[in-house]
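Bug: token stream looks shifted between consecutive jobs. Job 1:
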Amino acid sequence: MRLLKFTNLLALGLALTFVATGCKRKNAGVTKLPDGSGMVGNGIDNGNALKPGEGVQMGGGALGGFDPDQMAQDRAALATETIYFDYDSSSIKGFQQSKIGAVASALKSDPSAKLLIEGNCDERGTEEYNRSLGERRALSAREALAGAGVDAGRIATRSYGEDRPADSGHSDSAWRKNRRDEFVLLHPR
């Protein structure tokens, strides 16, 4: 009889624990950056496919004085400068520093241009984790560009997590292509 009461209490305790902790979902709020700027919008997909221009935004954006979605986007200009990351990493490899330099040169040569950095991940990991990792990757490139002399206020970042794969395969080769930052040159309309 005592054992039955104990197991019932244990089962009730476990059920309450699952109810209390298993169903919570936080919206991403404002992420403060070291320079005082923050994230715009919550970027959470909640199970629906993202529309163009959606994703987690921080850096630049409305808080940086411009909205990347209101500017003319030139994706081809810096398409060859895409940088790739190791698994579960936001560190830019030394041999990719030349690509950061090329992006910095493009921005320095056109003072009216701005930049959108899109952070992406492979499909492994949870959606929330991949959004966070994509954010860290984009911020890493933003920091590298600021170190190369580009005003960080001219750079907006956005994380798409795993939502925009470059290769839809499920192999190491596909995943390598999906762990990337893409640079989009922006011009006033």
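Job 2, same session, no restart:
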Amino acid sequence: MISDSLAHSERYALLHPRFAAAFSFLRALPANPSDGRQDIDGDRLFALVQSYTTSPAAERKFEHHRKYADIQFLFAGEEIIEHAPLEELEVDTPYNAEKDFGLVHGSAFKSAVVLTPGRFGVYFPEDAHKPGCSLHAPTPVRKVVVKILL
């Protein structure tokens, strides 16, 4: 898991061949993109622009992926993304390979990242993460999740 500002994103371009294109896409996005999927390189690299309202962490579940890494970048609002090692959590909803998605729960050690506009978090397959958590109260957010096929 990585957390940083988009201003420092060049540092992470060498993590994987598609990371440079992912961060270039984020830097070039207009301030208010339309919600929905935006293809960058087909299913190998794409973005999901989202608008929603955060909710208390106790109401949310950890998700995980096996094929894709996520770059979660915030345009507006604020949210907490909790993080825990996947191997220390228990299955809630079994992993679905077609959707590259599963839900887990547990009391493993967690860390939390506060995303504010201009900040991002990178989550790899071993990183269970719980996005959309409220910092102080439910808050509307605008966010883009870039999916990077590993």
